[in-house]
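Example S7 (structure tokens).
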């Protein structure tokens, strides 16, 4: 009896995993405590819309924008005491959408769970705003044209874990991926987008389905344009790194992270002599001043919770 029972439990567990794994979407955003005592979110409706776009691609049911925003606000206010003081960190919010139910074949899941985790966080990279060291991956790819690299599905992280773990073991901060067709154009880093600076021009790979359309990326493009930089979204060949003045990454978790070096096929290219690049610094300051409530929110990006 015991044996049968335990094998039933085992079968159920295996089955549940199979049903849930292929369908999972996540989001990431932060709640900040501003200088004047407000609690704010940065463009949360963008996260809601991105989850809906992802759900459409993955054949999942998704919360409406209103349901998403309501749930995020509720979780932040319920965890208010865990939001770090201004400038000391933020409350990271991780909405999750999972499919489950009795399906073994290829079919949409009959049930969905939308849940949200929250956790106080400091800096993503232990280096802080100090430059990070990236390695270009030439064997593994995170996405392919027509695939799901452009939506925030849990599978994207599973695909990069092996390369990411190996890079970490060799002392790198993260991995920079190349396109899987030509193996020569920059795509992005495991969990953030990449920008390359030359003189007054900032280039970043265009959104074509294989890179994640970062909300920080989009915001930094607007901020850079308003500061007088020329921003171009185009193919960025890996060779362009050799002549770049600066390289930096953007994402909710990493904010704006300057890149100190990139290693490609064993050859290391350094930027900025270990110092934070001028453009990365300027953009980091502009973005964080907005999020901390210091700069005026001309773009209407800040949602006040209290
Ligand atoms: C979440 C994520 C980003 C950054 O997106 P933001 O909206 O700026 O946080 C970039 N790349 C990948 C692969 C991601 O999962």
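Recovered sequence:
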């Amino acid at each position: 009896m015991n044996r049968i029972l335990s094998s039933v439990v085992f079968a159920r567990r295996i089955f549940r995993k199979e049903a849930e794994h292929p369908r999972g979407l996540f989001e990431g955003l932060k709640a900040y405590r501003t200088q004047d005592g407000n609690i704010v979110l940065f463009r949360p409706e963008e996260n809601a819309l991105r989850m809906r776009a992802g759900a459409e691609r993955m054949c999942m049911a998704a919360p409406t924008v209103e349901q998403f925003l309501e749930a995020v606000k509720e979780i932040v206010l319920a965890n208010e005491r865990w939001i770090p003081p201004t400038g000391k960190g933020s409350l990271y919010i991780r909405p999750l959408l999972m499919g489950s139910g009795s399906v073994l074949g290829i079919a949409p899941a009959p049930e969905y769970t939308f849940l949200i985790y929250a956790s106080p966080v400091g800096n993503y990279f232990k280096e802080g705003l100090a430059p990070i060291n990236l390695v270009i991956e030439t064997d593994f790819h995170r996405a392919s044209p027509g695939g799901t690299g452009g939506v925030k599905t849990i599978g994207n992280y599973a695909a990069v874990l092996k390369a990411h773990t190996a890079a970490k073991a060799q002392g790198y901060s993260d991995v920079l991926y190349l396109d899987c067709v030509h193996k020569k154009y920059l795509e992005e880093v495991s969990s953030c987008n990449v920008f390359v600076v030359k003189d007054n021009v900032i280039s970043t790979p265009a959104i074509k389905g294989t890179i994640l359309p970062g909300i920080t990326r989009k915001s930094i493009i607007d901020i850079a344009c308003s500061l007088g930089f020329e921003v171009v979204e185009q193919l960025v060949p890996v060779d362009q790194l050799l002549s770049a003045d600066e390289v930096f990454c953007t994402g909710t978790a990493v904010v704006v992270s300057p890149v100190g070096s990139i290693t490609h096929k064993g050859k290391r290219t350094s930027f900025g002599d270990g110092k934070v690049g001028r453009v990365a610094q300027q953009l980091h300051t502009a973005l964080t001043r907005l999020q901390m409530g210091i700069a005026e929110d001309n773009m209407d990006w800040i949602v006040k919770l209290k």
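Notes on this example. The chain has two domains: 23-123, 132-292.
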